[in-house]
Each structure stands twice: as structure tokens, then as C-alpha cells.
């Protein structure tokens, strides 16, 4: 693999400290970032001239359904929802993802190099989410963490799924009942595993155990007052969690901050409508960030297009969020949420060489575009 030296760009390292943005160079070697410094010399490297351009870590979208909701056929395919039981925690998203989905190419052409792919929200316990790079032919080779999270859903999606079947859960209290009961059973199952009384194997319980142990977070689809139930249950069982979509968060800022949870806000560009989308409060992004909550901005792609991530960042800035803080919400913040900040999310030596060279300032310049995308040290797109 060739060495690459990115020269003279404005580096958004996304590290902590006063000097996280500066003019400098990045050396890439063997798929990793070898060095980041104001001046680097390497005679045997391919040089990318980034003078006057912006160099960022590869962007991260922490909530997508690309290849699961597959729009790459004559008719749309839904392989994201195994809607045969309210609890399908053992379902693994990898087995539904079409790695040839057109949206993945669009993603890395727009600098999005890593995504969390999650099952849909038709059930209460929906399945196992995974983290993968956006470039490749084989989803198992592209995957960098599996499982990465347990996907859970509150609100209208599971309620409507099983309401149409006239079975539990038809109501929000029914959804809450399934949530409480399933965690109770999973805790009981784990306690038996740790004792002499070994339980019969249960794939769904096995899938929830990593969340109970704190090894992976729960990603909980919920909005408005459903967030309060999610917080109550998650706190009771001590699981790490993020609130997904989180429309209406401005009504519950104190509860969110006190819970210590993460937020995956969005899609910002979605339409307002009765029900869950009634309150699209984009200003929540800045308000939560101001209070120390780790916020990521998400597209929910392909529900909205991958490139709409640019619009989401811009809307957050328009609501008063500092541009650099907005960029953190699609780089280091989601990397931390996914416990992958040792590999992705910043420009630092030793990290995966997922790098974007941009013409224009993301979130401020409406004509900002990607000139180069590197994934694992390979130039996968050049404008």
C-alpha cells in the first residue's frame, strides 16, 4: 500500500485542546495515520496538495439502515424489520445489508467513511447493530465492530406493528411492559449463567447480555415523552444508552443531562407531522451540547439521503452551534458513542487513515465538496 502525504491543509484534528485546528500535513502509511504535524517530509510518498483546503477525519453517521431498506431493486425491499415478535434481539444486521447498495458509494463520495448500520424500529427489541466502513464489497470484511449496539424502539413503530395484529404491544404502556419484562428476563438469565443453575440457551437473551454488562450501548428509538420511559428503564438496569432521533428533547433537557446518555439527533431535515415528528427542535443540538451531552447528528439514511448530512450540519450551525462543534458531531462524538474513538473520529497517529480533503468549510459553505476520500489509507474517491 502506497504512502500518502497530505500537504498544507487546514487540519480539523478533532482532538481536545486549543490547537486542534491548524495548518499542517498528514502522513499515511499501511492503512494508518503515521504522523500529523505542521511540516512533514517523506520523499517516497504520493503527495496530495491540500493548500487552501480542509482536511478532516472521515465522517461518521451513527444511525443508518442502508442496504437493509434496500432501494436498489425494482421495488423497495425491507430487510430491516423482522416483525414476527416484539423481541428479536438476536437478529444481526449484517445478514440483511446489501454491500452493493448505491447509497454506500454516495456516502464515501461525500466523505462519510463509517456508519452504524441498525435494524429498523418495528419491534421493541429490534436486533444487533454493527459498525462498518462504507467502502468494500463484503460486509463482513467492511465490519469493524459487531455487535456494536442493541437496537430498541419505543413509540409509534412497534405500537403500530403489533396494534395491526391486535396483540401486545398495542399501546405505549404495552411497549413499556415488553421493555421492562425483557430486561428482567435477560438479567435473570445472566444471573443463572453466573451461578450453578445454567439456563436453556436463549439467543435473544444472549444478545442482550453485552448491554447488561456495559460492553455495548442500547440505541433506543424514541421521541418526546417516550424518552422519559427509555431513561427510566435504562437507568434501572444500568445500561449505557443513546436516545435515537430525540425530537422534542428541549422538553426534557434536565432529565437527559442527569441520565448521562448520548443523543443521536435527527434526521434534522425531516418534515414536521402529527405524532413523533410533531416537534423537530433543531435548537436542541446546541442546547444539549452546551450542557455537556455527547451529541451525534444522524441521517437515518436511506430514509433521507446520505449527502443530507451536510444539510443537517448546516442547520445546526444556523441554530447557533459553532461550526467546529457541529463537525465534532459527525466525527469524534459518534466515535466515542460507539467506543471506537481509539480507531476513528480524529486525525491522530495510529488511527485508521479515514480522511477527507474538502474544498469549502463543512456546515458554513453551501458549495463545500469532497476532493478526496481515503478509507483505510486508500484513495477510494477523487473528484
**What is the alpha-carbon Rg in Å?**
21 Å
What integer is the average pLDDT?
96
Q: Compute the number of helices.
A: 11
CATH superfamily of the largest domain: Metal-dependent hydrolases
| Parts with pLDDT < 50 across at least 5 consecutive residues | none
Q: How many DSSP E strands?
A: 18
**N→C terminal distance:** 21 Å
| Beta-strand percent range | 25-35%
- How many individual domains? 2
**Order of helix and strand elements from N to C terminus:** EEEEEEEEHEEHEHHHEHEHEHEHHHEEE
CATH architecture of the largest domain: Alpha-Beta Barrel
CATH class descriptor of the largest domain: Alpha Beta
Overall form: globular
Which features would summarize this protein structure in a list?
2 domains; 383 residues; 26% helix; TIM Barrel; Urease, subunit C, domain 1; eight-stranded mixed β-sheet
